[in-house]
Amino acid sequence: MTAAAIVLGALLAVGVVVLVALPFLREPVVSDDRLDAPSEAEERRLELVEERDRTLAALKELEFDHRTGKIGDDDYRELLPPLRQAAARALRALEPDQEIAVTRRAGVEEVQPKH
Amino acid sequence: MAELGRAALVLSLGLSVYALVAGAVAAHRNLRRLSTSARNALFCSFASTLVAAAVLASALVRHDFSFAYVAEHTDRNLSTPYALSAFWGGQEGSLLLWLLVLTGFGSLAVFLNRRLLRDLTAWVVPVLGGIGTFFAFMLVAVSSPFGTQTAPLDGAGLVASLQNPYMVAHPPMLYLGYVGLSIPFAFAAGALLSGNTDERWIVATRRWTLVAWTFLGFGQLLGAHWAYVEVGWGGYYAWDPVENAALMPWLAATAFLHSVMIQERKGMLKVWNMVLVALAFELSILGTFLTRSGVVNSIHSFAKSPIGGWFLAFLVISSLFSVALILWRLPLLKAKTKLESALSREATFLYNNLLLVALCLTILWGVLFPIVTQLVKGEQRTIGRPYYDFFLRAFGLPLLFLMGIGPLIAWRKTSLRALARTLFWPIVVTIACGVALVFVGAGSSTPGIIAYSFSAFVLATIVLEFVRGTRATGSLFVLIGRNRRRYGGYIVHAAIVLLAIGIAGSSAYGANVEQRLTRGQSVTVDGYTLTNRGIIQRTTIRAKETRVLLDVRGPWKGQIQTGSNQFFNPPEPAQEVAIKTNWLRAEDLYVIADEVHPATGIVYVQILVKPLVNLIWIAGIVFLLGSGVALWPDAREQRRLVTRLAPARA
Fold first, then answer.
1. Whole-prediction pTM value?
2. Are residues B391 and B253 in the same domain?
3. In sequence order, which ranges of B475-525 are alpha helices (DSSP H)?
4. Residues B207 and B325 in one domain
């Protein structure tokens, strides 16, 4: 084994050990070593956000499909209200103040009245 | 330097084991510092593998025959690009490439998601560590590329058929695809292990899946082109078990890319998506097992090696792990909604998924059949081309039809009246195309004319989608920019249509004539007249070349040479075919010299005329373009994602 190979190997080994041990070298003693996993409330919020994004995306799709002729007026009128209600429910559950603004951004002409 | 390579691999193995064990303990016990440490070990295993890869690459370029691997796969006359391509020309180098790509992709995926998805990546690290442990163990204990010997004067050389530019790119492309499928698998397993089966793992791996799928698809097309120009049998896909081994995970990943959209939009098919991700990963491992174990006969198979059993064990363990994980988390994977109508976009995606998976499993059965018959009857029986061609038509043609009808159907539900309205022009185009094709004489092949008509239907719907979308948004660029995945997907559909037309044209309408020709004798095939003008032989530094000179008259005029090379190192023959592309007639004249007798001047040639075959290669470029559009980063989507997940970081 050449000297260069030995030096390179040693450097690699030392570098690796330092990097792997780094979290413990940086913080030898910590008051809180827990992973910041989402709490139950946070998980519920994520679920609601997913629901909101899903319904808003569905509203946009519906609008687009209607404009491009893939969906007829009757189907559009039938599908729109439940989607709006679902979007409004998700928005209300998250942040009531954002309800109108976000629904407008989604391209829906009319929004559910705030309670 | 071989010792450095060996040491780097041992280090990589140790780091992978640490990432697996420490990562699992940290995620299970919720320990932040240990989790970060395990993550760093994953990053370091990449650095360590990179050092090992650099050692091997350097030995290949320097023709250092004290490395047994270098001596077995190269010689002094090999140019630097081909010497480097010998990295994946043998089993040990291929395994090293696997580990390098796995640790590289894995580190990058974990690094990019380390803040937004900390709880998820805590479980992804041990999964990636587990896969890395297997490959590092194989390289350290079973199949090392760093075996040394007393350096011989010259090496054994690279297999002749691998000395082709396509072979420089084709294997690494496939490896990037195979290994890339480990990333969605690791994130899916991470989601199941952590119990967080929301959509974050899908969002995090969407691009990774698309990248792996693109590499796998494009890699296969490169391989098909290599077979066409280099192997010299006149075709591009032989339903060989190893070719099928690359096609199967691609089909499973294609199904996943479609079905995941239903989960994103409707919260449905969560179990199905997990199954597809696991299936794609397991099939990529199966592909390596088939290539390397020698359990089935294949032109791609290498000599029987001891790694087959290890791969089989890994395949069984990882499959059991996936199944157990999905069953354990089944209650978390319940659908939130249900299918509203059998006539909806999501329903067509579901039908497409069933057909893709059916095709995939049919091919799997064909691949495994020789192994099953060996086990049951004690003799290997293989399934031939008619079996695969039948099922390709049975599942492929409805898939092509669905590809056309899907984009015209709205999400949730579509009335028959609305569907009839949107289908009007595509159907007119399809009928017009079918009638025109019958008039020009294409009616001789029923599957061919169905494939052409369906292709016209799909192309018409794609054009219609772009026209209507542009009208609705006012600009084509705005349309594509706002929904890159959808319109990138349509471009990929166009590529598949070109592929279908190319396959149908070259297989259903081509000419194929075998002829004995004495010197001066002619033969006419599909308008081309070929005359034997004699045989020439020459010797180069690498091979003895034998060529038949053929004068061609007809739609193309000139002289072509076809024959074979007898390579010296390694001593093996290679077919050298003559291919002339006639762009005006959109066809190839393809001539193979089956037998050449220099003493008598007699040759036995096979002359093929292959209409539209070049559309298959053009499809590759369109495929890349579509994937590029779909992959192009969307700043608005990124902002939305960060906003959505921001509080999870706090």
1. 0.89
2. yes
3. 476-482, 484-508
4. yes
Summarised one tens digit per residue, pLDDT across range B37-48 is 999 999 999 999
CB-closest option in A20, A58, A69 to B41: A20
* Residues paired with B538 in a beta bridge: B545
Which of B74-81's residues contact partners 24+ apart within 8 Å by CB, and which partners? B74/B155, B74/B157, B74/B158, B75/B154, B75/B155, B75/B156, B75/B157, B75/B158, B75/B569, B76/B154, B76/B155, B77/B157, B77/B541, B77/B542, B77/B569, B78/B157, B78/B158, B78/B163, B81/B168
Residue whose entry in the numeric block shows the structure tokens 């690791």: B186
Strands B587-597 and B578-582: antiparallel
CA distance B182 to B105: 9
- Tell whether B490 and B589 lie within a shared domain: no
Helix (H) or strand (E) holding B610: strand B602-611
Do B399 and B516 reside in the same domain of the chain? no
> Residue B173 in contact with residue B85, Cβ under 8 Å?
no
Q: Facing residues of B603 across strands?
A: B517, B596
**Do B372 and B483 share a structural domain?**
no
DSSP state of B536: E
The structure tokens 């974050």 sit at B200
- B196 touches A: beta carbon within 8 Å: yes
Q: Do B413 and A74 touch (CB under 8 A)?
A: no
- What's residue B456's pLDDT? 92
Please return the burial class of B180, using the count of CB atoms within 10 Å of its CB with bins 0-12, 13-18 and 19+: buried
The maximal CA–CA distance of chain B, rounded, in angstroms, is 84
ipTM over 0.90: no
Please name the residue of chain A whose CA is at the shortest distance from the CA of residue B420. A70
Residue A101 CB coordination number (10 Å)? 12
Report the distance separating Cα B418 and Cα B408, nearest Å.
Answer: 10
pLDDT digits (tens, 9 = 90+) for B69-95: 999 989 888 889 999 999 988 889 999
Is residue B643, in this structure, part of any structural domain at all? no
Residues B238, B324 within the same domain: yes
Closest partner CB to A16 (pick from B1, B15, B650): B15
